[in-house]
Design brief:
Elements lengths: L1 H25 L6 E7 L18 H4 L5 E4 L12 E6 L10 E8 L7 E3 L1 H6 L4 H10 L1 E9 L9 E4 L8 E7 L6 E9 L5 E3 L1 E4 L2 E5 L6 E8 L6 E4 L14 E3 L6
The chain binds 2-acetamido-2-deoxy-beta-D-glucopyranose (NAG).
2-acetamido-2-deoxy-beta-D-glucopyranose (NAG) binds next to loops.
InterPro entries: Expan_Lol_pI (IPR007118), Expansin/allergen_DPBB_dom (IPR007112), Expansin_CBD (IPR007117), Expansin_CBD_sf (IPR036749), RlpA-like_DPBB (IPR009009), RlpA-like_sf (IPR036908)
Protein name: Expansin-like B1
Family: Belongs to the expansin family.
Length: 257
């Protein structure tokens, strides 16, 4: 009897510790998480024009080409445009700061969360020599955390998808979203009668609708943090013009932090 009471106490103590650890993980959104990172196998320094997010060439060159494909963090496209600080762990080669990358693609490697552009991979190193050595490793242990994206002197910008077909089918991606929230819903509203239509996330970061509303269009974006505590609609000052065109970009006139 005494023994079972003792083991019960031990069990309770273990549960308490586990709960405390779980609580610590929850209250520690800025903590680094251990993982691994690889780099794109091709010789391009930057990312890829055909990334799963649908960003096009923006997805290769944004942030100076410090971009990454993500596996789990891709989150079915919701993770597109999110920024992460990634630093490798070998103190001989790696800097404390590491690289800050934008997710623009989906990709899976050997137990990796990130497949970085070669440029971003090299930027985790202290020197160019160390970068060459690091790239030769191919896959390295890293730690990462989500950070705010920053695009100085840029407003959130709408890039109409090349596949759009005025006025029947409208698709677009959202460029230069600062901060560390996700855009979880997008609406287009007619400016005359405020009839609104909720768009679909067709794939990656691409929002689409068949039969878009007509006239100048007011965009509404729903921003949400990862645990859904801080949510709000953002309505840009600029409308998407009535005669929107495939391939065109439109400055929304707003930015978020
Ligand atoms: C951002 O939008 C504001 C209007 O809201 C505009 O005055 C400013 O020039 C825009 N910035 C850029 C870099 O386009």
């Amino acid at each position: 009897m005494a023994l079972s009471l003792k083991s019960l106490m031990l069990l309770l103590a273990t549960l308490c510790i586990m709960q405390a650890l779980a609580a610590e993980a929850e209250t520690c959104p800025d903590c680094f998480i251990r993982s691994r990172a690889a780099h794109y196998p091709n010789s391009d320094e930057q990312g890829t024009d055909s990334g799963a997010c649908g960003f096009g060439s923006f997805g290769a060159t944004i942030n100076g080409g410090d971009v990454s494909a993500a596996s789990g963090l891709y989150r079915n496209g919701l993770g597109c445009g999110a920024c992460y600080q990634v630093r490798c762990l070998n103190s001989y080669y790696c800097s404390d700061r590491g690289a800050t990358v934008v997710i623009t693609d989906s990709g899976w490697g050997p137990n990796t969360d990130f497949i970085l552009s070669r440029r971003a991979f090299g930027r985790m190193a202290q020197t160019t020599d160390a970068a060459a050595a690091l790239l030769a490793h191919g896959v390295v242990d890293v730690e990462y955390r989500r950070v705010s994206c920053s695009y100085p002197y840029k407003n959130i910008t709408i890039k109409i998808d090349e596949k759009s077909d005025y006025p029947h089918y409208l698709g677009f991606v959202i460029w230069y979203q600062q901060g560390k929230k996700d855009i979880t819903a997008v609406q287009l509203c007619e400016t005359k009668n405020f009839a609104c239509k909720l768009l679909d996330r067709s794939h990656g970061a691409v929002w689409t609708t068949t039969s878009p509303p007509s006239g100048p269009l007011s965009l509404r974006m729903f921003f949400s943090d990862e645990d859904g505590d801080d949510e709000s609609w953002v309505v840009p000052v600029n409308n998407i013009p009535q005669d929107w065109k495939a391939g065109e970009t439109y400055d929304t006139g707003v930015q978020v932090n």
